[in-house]
Amino acid sequence: MSARRRPRLAVWKFSSCDGCQLSLLDCEDELLALAGQVEIAYFQEATSATAGGRYDLSLVEGSVTTPGDAERIRKIRAASRRLVTIGACATSGGIQALRNSAGVEGFLEAVYAHPEYVATLATSTGIADHVPVDFELRGCPVDRHQLLEVISAFLAGRRPVVPTHSVCVDCKLAGTVCVMVARGTPCLGPVTQAGCGALCPAHARGCYGCFGPAETPNTAALAGRLAALGMPRPARERVFSTFNVNAPAFGPAAAGTGE
Amino acid sequence: MSSRIPLRTISVSALARVEGEGAMTVRVKDGKVDGVELRLYEPPRFFEGLLRGRSFTEPPDITARICGICPVAYQMTACRAIEDAAGVRVGGPLHELRRLLYCGEWIQSHALHIYLLHAPDFLGYAGAVEMAADHREAVERGLALKKVGNEIMKLLGGRPVHPVNVRVGGFYRVPAKATLRGLAPVLEAGLAAALETVSWAAGFDFPELDIESPLVALHDPDGYAIIDGRIVSSDGINASQAQFLEVFEEYQVQHSTALQSRIVGAGHYLCGPIARYSLNYAQLTPVAREAASAAGLGTSCRSLFRSIIVRAVEVVEACSQALGIIEGYEEPPMPAVPVDAAGLTGHACTEAPRGLLYHRYRIGDDGLIASAQITPPTSQNQAQIEHDLAAFVGRNLDLGVPELTLRCEQLIRSYDPCISCATHFLSLQVVGR
Ligand code: SF4
Ligand code: SF4
Questions:
Q1: Does B63 touch chain A (CB under 8 A)?
Q2: A116, B188, B333, B358: which has the fewest C-beta neighbours closer than 10 Å?
Q3: Please, what is the Cα angle at A170 between A164 and A175, to 5 degrees?
Q4: Are A91 and A137 in contact (CB under 8 A)?
């Protein structure tokens, strides 16, 4: 028996909604084929079998929000040949990173009987803030086609082909009429990375930035445009403060959506 | 011969095949159950805190991120609570489209649970991939069924996880009649697969454990409750959605990051498929009722381990409701009705796949959310799960520890606890800055 060893895949969860892992289980047509090509060595949501040792590819979902998790990600990194983050939580801290700038005190007005029962950090941070990461896949949630591309690429030992241009380009490719030009609907498409297939404009709404900043986004110019469309400053701050609030370019944009 | 060890602990440090992170310990002393802990250690994500100061138009997108498996439940409950504040009732085709989207989520979530999370327990596998080696056809049927739910979510919502097309008041864009009709063959195939699922699941071996606690669900006289109805129980509760907080109260326990819930003046209760089925049997569409009786279910079911059959019956129900909606659909004149909820408070409950979900929003005069409360199904079922673990272990002490441990995991998975949802609820003191 000298069959080539199947690459060992692990899927890890940190603070998250499970949506990005679920995007993997949503690959209904490809799942069993994929399972035949890799050894699923760790995937808590899918199997109770767990195999220790080293992993060829670790997919990490979720952000680091507890002291224990900061420790756990270091162990996972040490045991993984390649480590890829999946989704906005793992890549930029996710929506739970709103606590970072808001100051958690703002969330703690309600009186709880026993706050001492749980330890949690004052920040929610992406995985790359803690350990080196080989690739970051954007999206809240990730797009399952991109996810399959990333897995295949790493298993084949090549870089994944994932565009870094903005949602606007995909709207043009799809022939979707610009919601901002045609209807004056505020849209983050110009500064948001493509990958979703320009879903929101296709549904007659503005992009709300769930894939995070595109390469070299001009957030200041967009903030000015949003202001011209009549969006008041607090609302402009809020649009940059959602699922990627902690991403470089969106966080500062939220704070500086100047006049 | 069983040899009774005076002190032992049945424990699972990380529950597999559930959504989110949890653990379980049952301590046995002198042949009696001495303590049970279902520990949900998923870190809190502070959703109720971070909703404060957001516009009342934002909760559908934000609360979707509480749970990747039931985002529509959060979107629908948020929309309806905010519309309740504004005194707006979204009816007609928009309500029907919401029900259709919710049916998609029920199909997807239940199929995931039945085939990928729960069936491996009954057939003795670590997971569906392992199970596929011997039961390829069943796993493929499960994946195809799950895809039927996802197709509905994709068509109406844009994507299955965190749909983009839902807004307060309705949708951003509604489908054309012909587009929606195009789903009919997909749903017919789904219905057939769902019926096969019911008979497949009915053939499993079921450990016995009957739920004696009150069952709680929505009840909608017009049809099997999904998105609307009054809160009813097997013990006579009959309350409006706005009375949720008068009927139930939450409390904190040391071993869990999620609050637990009880009926005021009574105690733990069960919500979810078994409760819905038992309280709403008469509203099932005929095809679902026939499937249930062929599977040996009566007009109510209190057998916890049979919840997998009840879920399968609910998939039949969801496919059949969805087909009806598609047939009767007429395009509404507008994709959404206008809503202004400034300065008001609203409540809503809907039936998430895992059970009753409650949202309440207080909205300031500036249109920003002043406070939010969200009570997900797993918070409500936690105390019931602990109670059932104690009862089950107490009655099965003759089983060896490994066997008993497996059965306890299977029991917990019978609830399909959604731990990611359960724990966002609690905002806790932050330490270790
Ligand atoms: S990135 Fe979004 S979809 Fe993915 S786990 Fe985080 S909240 Fe869920
Ligand atoms: S258009 Fe923007 S907000 Fe919408 S799905 Fe795509 S990246 Fe996310």
A1: no
A2: B333
A3: 170
A4: yes
